Amino acid sequence: MSKSFAFALALVVGFVSRGAAAQQRPDTSLVVTTDWLAHHLDDPSVVLLAVEHDRDSYTHGHVPGARYVDYNSLTARVNGISTEMPSADSLARLLGALGVTPASHVVLYAHMLPMSARALVTLEYAGVRRVSLLDGGAERWMAEHRPMTDATPKFAATRFAANPEREMIASAAWVRSKLSKPGVSLIDTRTDPEYNGGGERHGGFSTGHLPGARQLEWEQLTAPDNELQLKDLAELRRLYAERVVPGDTVVTYCAVGYRASVTYLVARYLGYPVKLYDGSYDEWSKLGYPTDTARVSLRRQSAR
Question: 210 lies in which domain range?
């Protein structure tokens, strides 16, 4: 190999490496701390949302200024598959009723991380440009002896024009077309019995995982003392480096796209290009697409 060719090759490799690193620059705006929120409670551009299954939980106590959102309004059943994206019109009505504008910075929390992650993914899909997760949720807020209230805040409704980010959602056909091809790293956000095959969840039997998928349960991403708080960036990077080929688009899935919203969110947080396979295993199995029971080994060498 000539010296000039070797130098040119080194330049190309260096450029590619720098490009991959730039792609994976953390998007820290996706997660805000309780300190940040405490300093922005009176910021008129911040819209704080408490995502709950019912209003009773909200009226029992919430962070001051938080607006109530029924979690069920953020999901839809489509072609027999639950937890799918609602229509653009219904999301536009919901966000308008919540007073969200194009200038709003939406911050949200729920009592389960998959709930808050799913809400965040749905708002991103609807076209909300700035949306963040409250790290640690209301539990961390209360543990720090910060105020809670049962008062409902007053705010004006708006007209929100939904602009769905359809590219962030992967279809079953798209995922199947990428199997066994370079460029995509699949992450299965399910339990061992579901991933390995032979397990079931809510009556749904699993025959295994999508071919090539590596497993990463959402609980592995959270702090040991608070399942609403993410681990530090270095540990999150390690967990994804074990499962994602550098330069790949990450595609996350679970049973119906609920738990996979967490692995999607963290992939976004870490700066990976990422898609959510929203139909997930439920749709995949109904279509009769192939599954595998052989555990895909982790890429441990890349995590060193």
Answer: 167-303
